[in-house]
């Protein structure tokens, strides 16, 4: 039995998600009316820009969220726990390399990776292996490689550094988090999990719910579960994009240490899709060092603002904080080492 407090918090989260969805629909369909001076009111241009950026982030991410929750649903229905034990090496460290290689195959951006990794861990994938896939797949996949190539085709150093760092650092990050957490359970159990288990029992016992119906049920349920956190993260990211003083960024862009730190913070706040962030990064090429551009392209897909909100929703706070600190320190030190060594 759930306590009154748990039921209230669950209701509050669902109600907030519903309000965010309504807000998104209102802004999407009525944006032009806000610009109409004859209506007797106008909205400041800065808030119109917030709305534009907010809508662009959500619309850009929704297709990938749909892909992620559908793949997650397929994993839930068709992937057996025994498969994980059969194909992954028993040695914790030996399993890191296959996970990183797996990230090079699937065209999944960071918008879709959280539900997929969550489902894989629930199916028996070790936590540290899931971490490797979480940070590697959004960068190492072919679509991101192609977009980075076209954005920096005059200087392929950025492409090579991005892909090489992502591959190596994903293994290092996975190893560090294995040492810290030892694959203890850090997934939160939600009411949606209980509902899914109930549906599966009914389907398996009475044959009334076929596998394809279960797949679509899981996908739809998880889409709305993830969607409210996506909308919240997109709105906060839009606020930062609009009101952040970019002239301040330009004044510190030439220093290797400060520019790397600032571009990592910028990547976190902007919450760009990894399949499009290279074109944004290329626009900063004249203001920031090559190393800081690489840091932007490696750090953002591994952890950003909207992903942080999703991670806190489904993983323990202790794990998420440890994950963010590990990724931040590892990426910063690696990029600085490459810059000080004259490699980039």
From TrEMBL:
The chain crosses the membrane at residues 15-31, 52-79, 91-117, 129-152, 158-181, 223-244, 284-303, 309-338. Keywords: Cell membrane, Membrane, Transmembrane, Transmembrane helix. Its main location: membrane. It is a multi-pass membrane protein. It is found in: Cell membrane. One of its GO terms (cellular component) is plasma membrane. Belongs to the UPF0718 family. This is Permease. It comes from Halalkalibacter oceani. The lineage of its organism: Bacteria, Bacillati, Bacillota, Bacilli, Bacillales.
């Amino acid at each position: 039995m759930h306590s009154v407090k748990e039921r209230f918090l669950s209701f509050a989260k669902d109600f907030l998600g519903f309000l965010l969805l309504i807000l998104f629909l209102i802004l999407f369909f009525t944006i032009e009316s806000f610009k109409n001076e004859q209506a007797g009111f106008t909205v400041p241009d800065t808030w119109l820009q917030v709305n534009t950026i907010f809508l662009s982030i959500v619309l850009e991410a929704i297709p990938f969220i749909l892909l992620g929750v559908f793949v997650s649903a397929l994993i839930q229905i068709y992937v057996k726990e025994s498969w994980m034990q059969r194909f992954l090496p028993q040695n914790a460290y030996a399993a890191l390399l296959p996970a990183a290689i797996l990230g090079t195959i699937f065209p999944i951006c960071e918008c879709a990776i959280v539900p997929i990794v969550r489902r894989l861990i629930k199916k028996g994938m070790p936590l540290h292996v899931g971490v490797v896939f979480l940070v590697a797949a959004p960068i190492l996949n072919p679509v991101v490689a192609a977009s980075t190539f076209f954005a920096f085709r005059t200087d392929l150093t950025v492409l090579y550094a991005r892909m090489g760092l992502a591959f190596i650092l994903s293994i290092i990050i996975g190893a560090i988090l294995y040492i810290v957490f030892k694959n203890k359970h850090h997934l939160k159990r939600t009411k949606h999990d209980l509902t899914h288990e109930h549906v599966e029992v009914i389907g398996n016992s009475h044959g009334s719910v076929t596998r394809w119906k279960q797949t679509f049920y899981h996908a739809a349920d998880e889409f709305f579960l993830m969607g409210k956190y996506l909308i919240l993260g997109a709105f906060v990211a839009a606020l930062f994009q609009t009101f952040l003083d970019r002239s301040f960024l330009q004044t510190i862009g030439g220093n290797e240490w400060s520019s790397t730190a600032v571009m990592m913070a910028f990547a976190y706040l902007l919450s760009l899709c990894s399949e499009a962030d290279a074109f944004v990064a290329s626009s900063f090429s004249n203001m920031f060092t090559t190393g800081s551009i690489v840091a932007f392209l490696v750090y953002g897909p591994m952890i950003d603002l909207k992903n942080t909100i999703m991670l806190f929703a489904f993983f323990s706070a202790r794990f998420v904080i440890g994950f963010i600190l590990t990724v931040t320190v590892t990426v910063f030190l690696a990029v600085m080492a490459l810059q000080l060594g004259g490699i980039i």
